[in-house]
């Protein structure tokens, strides 16, 4: 069998109802389902080049050799792809991010969705996007959702082997063309990576089991809001789910404080905009930056408001976009 170099791009996604808690740390199986939107433009380009001459996988991320931790996660994805393709041939892998790594902007989501797409293509596997999402999940839980564009549900699944823990599209970007303004609040890499943080919250946060219960009702609420294209309803559930996750993080021991003063200032500013009739709401992952989702006519007002807040170092305007795809000649 001959294999061919393949390049794929995958975008970042931001969860509306979040994933914070695993039932299996090896396979990245979640304790609860989650819902996200995939954002256009920002993401990762991954190039996979199988070669008979390599003794192990070689990996470069943003022009630097990958560290041991990244190699373990990449190895999990690549081993599964090799097993499915029935080969021992290793690959050279290059990954380029257009989003700052480890700042709570889901760079691992786009990285592993792009890797799954490029690797399965390079090794000649033809998988639909739901199957592909399971392979992306082995690298990073949130990557499960970045395989698809638009509004995405990651099913918790019941099986121990993860065969039913996959992502599916709920609505496309065209179905509900919301916009996003990202307020980048930079203070270097986050201190506790999400996997370690989840473990710590599960072990020590007194709110953890209530948080997991909340996710089930919030996901149902998100599905209803998305099906009805009900902006207010989606705004309410997204903000409250985000705050419930951060409450669980804050109550972890030692407390996981991902916010900076500017994070809180952005939340208040967005709340004030909405109270004044502007269709905008916020959400925040495991980092200080804030993603504001809004209707197209509100992008200017949101940008002007966020741009005036001290500590917001950069704004990115984007929209809901498509999922992972092959880049010909990439
Ligand atoms: O995929 P991970 O392990 O980086 O976890 C992501 C966790 C959050 O971004 C905080 C929430 C989510 O659902 O994306």
Describe the structure.
It is a single chain. 38% of the residues lie in helices and 25% in strands. The chain has two domains: 6-172, Ribosomal Protein S5, domain 2 (2-Layer Sandwich); 179-319, Alpha-Beta Plaits (2-Layer Sandwich). It is of the alpha+beta class. A hairpin with a 6-residue loop joins strand 11 and strand 12 (290-294). It has nine helices and 14 strands. Helix 1 (68-85) packs parallel to helix 2 (107-122). Strands 1, 4, 5, 6, 7, 8, 9 and 14 form an eight-stranded mixed β-sheet that branches. The longest helix has 20 residues, at 208-227. The structure holds (3R)-3-hydroxy-3-methyl-5-(phosphonooxy)pentanoic acid (PMV).
List the helices and strands and how they pair.
Layout: E1 6-17, E2 22-24, E3 29-30, E4 34-51, E5 58-61, E6 64-65, H1 68-85, E7 90-97, H2 107-122, H3 129-139, H4 143-146, E8 151-154, E9 167-171, E10 179-184, H5 194-204, H6 208-227, H7 231-250, H8 261-275, E11 280-283, E12 290-294, H9 299-307, E13 314-319, E14 325-326
Parallel strand pairs: 5-7
Antiparallel strand pairs: 1-4, 1-14, 2-3, 4-7, 4-8, 5-6, 8-9, 10-12, 10-13, 11-12
Helix pairs in contact: 1-2, 1-3, 2-3, 6-7
This protein binds (3R)-3-hydroxy-3-methyl-5-(phosphonooxy)pentanoic acid.
(3R)-3-hydroxy-3-methyl-5-(phosphonooxy)pentanoic acid is lined by residues 15, 18-20, 34, 106, 108-109, 140-142, 194-195, 285-286.
């Amino acid at each position: 069998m001959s294999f061919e170099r393949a390049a794929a791009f995958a975008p970042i996604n931001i969860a509306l109802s979040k994933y914070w808690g695993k039932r299996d740390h090896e396979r990245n199986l979640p304790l609860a389902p989650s819902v996200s939107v995939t954002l256009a433009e920002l993401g990762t380009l991954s190039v996979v080049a199988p070669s008979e001459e390599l003794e192990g996988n070689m990996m470069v991320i943003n022009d630097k050799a990958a560290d041991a931790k990244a190699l373990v996660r990449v190895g999990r994805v690549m081993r599964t792809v090799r097993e499915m393709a029935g080969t021992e041939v290793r690959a050279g892998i290059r990954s380029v991010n257009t989003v700052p790594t480890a700042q709570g902007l889901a760079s691992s989501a786009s990285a592993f969705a792009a890797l799954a797409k490029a690797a399965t293509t390079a090794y000649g596997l033809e998988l639909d996007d739901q199957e592909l999402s399971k392979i992306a999940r082995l690298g990073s839980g949130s990557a499960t959702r970045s395989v698809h564009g638009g509004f995405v549900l990651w099913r918790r699944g019941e099986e121990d082997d993860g065969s039913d823990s996959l992502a599916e599209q709920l609505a496309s970007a065209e179905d509900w063309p919301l916009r996003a303004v990202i307020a980048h609040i930079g203070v270097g890499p986050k201190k506790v990576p999400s996997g370690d943080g989840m473990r710590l919250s599960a072990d020590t946060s007194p709110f953890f089991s209530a948080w997991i219960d909340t996710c089930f009702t919030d996901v149902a609420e998100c599905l209803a809001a998305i099906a009805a294209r009900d902006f207010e309803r989606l705004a309410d559930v997204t903000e409250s789910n985000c705050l419930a996750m951060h409450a669980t993080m804050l109550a972890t021991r030692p407390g996981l404080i991902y916010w900076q003063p500017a994070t809180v200032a952005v939340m208040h500013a967005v709340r004030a905009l909405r109270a004044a009739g502007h269709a905008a709401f916020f959400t925040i992952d495991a980092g200080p930056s804030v993603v504001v989702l809004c209707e197209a006519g509100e992008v200017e007002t949101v940008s002007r408001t966020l741009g005036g807040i001290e500590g917001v170092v950069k704004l990115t305007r984007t929209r809901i976009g498509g999922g992972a795809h092959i880049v010909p000649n990439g």
